[in-house]
Amino acid sequence: MFCLRKESPPLALLIEFLKAKKLTPILPKEVDDKLLNVWNWVGVELTYNKDRAPILLTCVRKDSAQGEIFDQDIQGLLNFAEAHRELDNWQVVDQLRGCRFYVATILDKNDITEEGYDFNGWILQFFQENCNGMVQIDGQGFFDAEGEVLLELPSIDDDVPEPKEPAH
Q: What contacts 167, CB < 8 A, 6 or more positions away?
């Protein structure tokens, strides 16, 4: 989720949003009110079902301790978007150039249910609505607010081995 808003909202606002959607987010015990109310959080595990793996939510900001990672990720995606310029790609390029922070949700594909995918969808919707966010799904693409693909990304196959150097 690539966001244009200047600062990421405190996690407490996300939790309130999820609860308003009749969801019950479960936070780790060490996450207290102080951590929930700071804007410069870096990561948290959100559990949607105590019998399932949590969803890891991370936030990487421009001009922060993670700035180098931010710059590399944004530049790599910008290079791809600009190399595959088509009619609607300008929205993706503009979003990436204006991005102040991005939020990634990391799902355990081996331990997630439809309930978990729905929970993740509400997380993405929160950042889309409250932070001028644009959804990007690895291996799928960038999406507009209506869920239409603006720019397809190449698929990611975790099972493909890395190419080996040919023997000489």
A: none
pLDDT tens, position by position, 87-135: 668 899 999 999 999 999 999 999 999 999 999 999 999 999 999 999 9
Specify the 3-state DSSP secondary structure of 36: helix
Q: Give residues with Cβ within 8 angstroms of 41, minimum separation 6.
A: 8, 10, 11, 35, 59
Residue 74 near residue 50 (C-beta atoms within 8 A): no
For residue 82, the SS3 value is: helix
Paired tokens of 164:
């080996």
- Tokens 């990672």 locate to 69
d(C-alpha 9, C-alpha 29), whole Å? 21
Per-residue confidence (pLDDT) for residue 166, from 0 to 100: 44
pLDDT tens, residue by residue, 148-166: 999 999 887 654 444 444 4
> What DSSP line would sit under 106-129, residue for residue?
E--TTS--HHHHHHHHHHHHHHHH
- Token pair 């990304």 in the structure block, residue: 153
Q: What per-residue confidence (pLDDT) applies to 2?
A: 97
- For tokens 């150039």, the residue is 97
The answer to whether the Cα torsion of 7, 103, 19, 144 is positive or negative is positive
